[in-house]
Amino acid sequence: MVKLSDIAEEAGCSVTVVSRVLHPGGVRRHRIAGASGHWERDDELAALYLKNMAWTIGEDGEAAPDRAGLEAGVRAVEAVLHSRSSNIYGVTDIDDMYQYLGGLSLAVRKASGRSPEGYIADQRKAGAAGLSGVRGFLAAELDARLFSKSWLRSMTGEGYAGSKSLARMADNVLGLQAVTS
């Protein structure tokens, strides 16, 4: 049986699988990024990302924290990528965009001193996949939704559910702004 570590060693590189902390609920950034009164500097947000994402899974299948390894690894990152393959939820509907893409961007910036380029792999239409910058992708979504009077009227016409969706969207935009430069 060929081991992944043997292939990596032969190629002159190391192999590490990095994962979030082994609990449900993402990297737990959603509990802090939108709650701006609970943190003063984005260093706290970067530390939270590194703490919760710096888990390695060894050949034995055991997970162990390795924050120093993740910090060393992100110093060389030049670009981050998040994929969109559904029209059901937008980038501002859920907190994944700022938890993962934003958290990684912030960790790279704190470790290396430079902001990585951010991209969205847009796979929402079969046969028409493309790559867009995060800012342009987000701007297009905000124009179509949050800055659209007819869309806002429709949402406010939904009562509590519409208002809750608008509040969640505002929280997610604030979260994304907090972790990206």
3D architecture notes:
The protein is α+β, with helices and mostly antiparallel strands and 181 residues long. The protein has one domain. 46% of the residues lie in helices and 14% in strands. It is built from seven helices and six strands. The strands form two sheets. It has a three-stranded antiparallel sheet. A hairpin with a 5-residue loop joins β2 and β3. α4 packs parallel to α7. The longest helix is centred in the last third of the chain and has 20 residues. The chain is globular, with a radius of gyration of 19 Å.
Q: Report the uncertain regions.
A: none
Number of strands: 6
Overall, the morphology is globular
**Major sheet description:** 3 strands, antiparallel
For the record, give the distance between the C-alpha atoms at the N and C termini, rounded to a whole number: 46 Å
User: How are the strands of the biggest sheet laid out side by side?
Assistant: 1-2-3
Residue fraction in strands: 5-15%
The proportion of residues forming helix, as a percent range, comes to 40-55%
Please state the structural category: alpha+beta
Write the element-wise H/E pattern from the N-terminal end onward.
Answer: HEHEEHEHEEHHH
pLDDT averaged over residues: 81
Number of helices: 7
Q: Cα-atom Rg, whole angstroms?
A: 19 Å
How many domain regions? 1
